[in-house]
Amino acid sequence: MAEGSPSKTVLVVDDDDVLRKLVCIAMQRTGLTVTIAVDGADPLQKLATESFDVIVSDCNMPRVDGFKLCESVRAEPRIAAIPIILMTSGTVDREERTTALNLGATAIVPRTPGLAEVVAAVRQVIAAG
Predict the structure, then answer these.
(1) Which residue of 30, 109, 110, 113 has the fewest C-beta atoms within 10 A of its own C-beta?
(2) pTM of the predicted model as reported, rounded to 2 decimal places
(3) pLDDT of residue 1
């Protein structure tokens, strides 16, 4: 991001405390302002009152998973345009990618050590925005 430009905001959604913290650190290192949500239901409450440039969410969570989160965000006209990057701990197969994109995810990426794919996807979304 350019110096002096307003910070972009990301909502990080993950039920695992350690993984959520690692993603937050990676996002902060790219200059993003980070807000956290602890599962798929929590972001819907935050999205009702706060504005975000991108959502980064784990796929597998209790109550509301990342796929259902995509559906819920896309169903709300006020927030439907927010890009959503889904993360998965395994490899992303064709069926999972198709499902994610059909439900409104902007991208689905593996959450590998170092989070390179997650960071790259967020940077691409921010640059396109």
Answers:
(1) 113
(2) 0.91
(3) 44
